[in-house]
């Protein structure tokens, strides 16, 4: 771990088997777990809490001050879960008084040039492809995948297991289990391939498809569609997750595709 060409603040708490490559800077008030590899030319600033067996590639900057004019120097942190990979030139900013922390979950992959702003919460097993830009206060559910060069508006929520096409402008909330694409961003079906890979049965996938038919293809507004879903579909964790997501949406959810479009919705 002791790399003479790296600067490690004496107050940093770094596990014995962490590897720190040359020309990296690690500030005070930093914690790094066992087995993590910190590549060359990485900057890890005060407030970083990095888990076990992570990999952080050259040019990344972790726990820089938030790019928020309301930030007044309060003590905030960045938390990165175990086994997460941070590729080249990724930036992850600390929280503000809102949440006091920015969180990246375990087993995530943030590809090159991703930016995660203050007070974001990224779940476990998420993938943010190259140059995804995440504004402040965004929440991303477990297993979500966001395609490259997408931009996520502040306060947007993306549900678990959602998959969003590259180059998307994400201005509205994206509910769980769906695929989203086009401009403006639109529901284009459920993420059936991803769900099968994660062990969802064909029956469960069919139930989720029926739920979204009622929500996006029935011609009902969201409130009426949710009432119909609760009337027609038996309670289940997936049904309740979608219903609660829609009802609690702060920015409103993306729309369903029109019947005149080319998508099948399945």
UniProtKB/TrEMBL annotation:
**CDD domains for the chain:** LbH_UDP-GlcNAc_AT (cd03351)
Q: Which residues form the UDP N-acetylglucosamine O-acyltransferase C-terminal domain?
A: 173-254
* Cross-referenced Pfam families: Acetyltransf_11 (PF13720), Hexapep (PF00132)
Q: Name a GO molecular-function annotation.
A: acyl-[acyl-carrier-protein]-UDP-N-acetylglucosamine O-acyltransferase activity
| Native organism | Hymenobacter metallilatus
Q: What is its EC number?
A: 2.3.1.129
* EC class: transferase
- Read off the Gene3D superfamilies from this record: Hexapeptide repeat proteins, Udp N-acetylglucosamine O-acyltransferase, C-terminal domain
Looking at the UniProt record for this protein, which Gene Ontology cellular component terms does it annotate, in alphabetical order? membrane
Q: Which UniProt keywords apply?
A: Acyltransferase, Lipid A biosynthesis, Lipid biosynthesis, Lipid metabolism, Transferase
Q: Which GO terms describe its biological process?
A: lipid A biosynthetic process
Q: What is the name listed in the Swiss-Prot or TrEMBL entry for this protein?
A: Acyl-ACP--UDP-N-acetylglucosamine O-acyltransferase
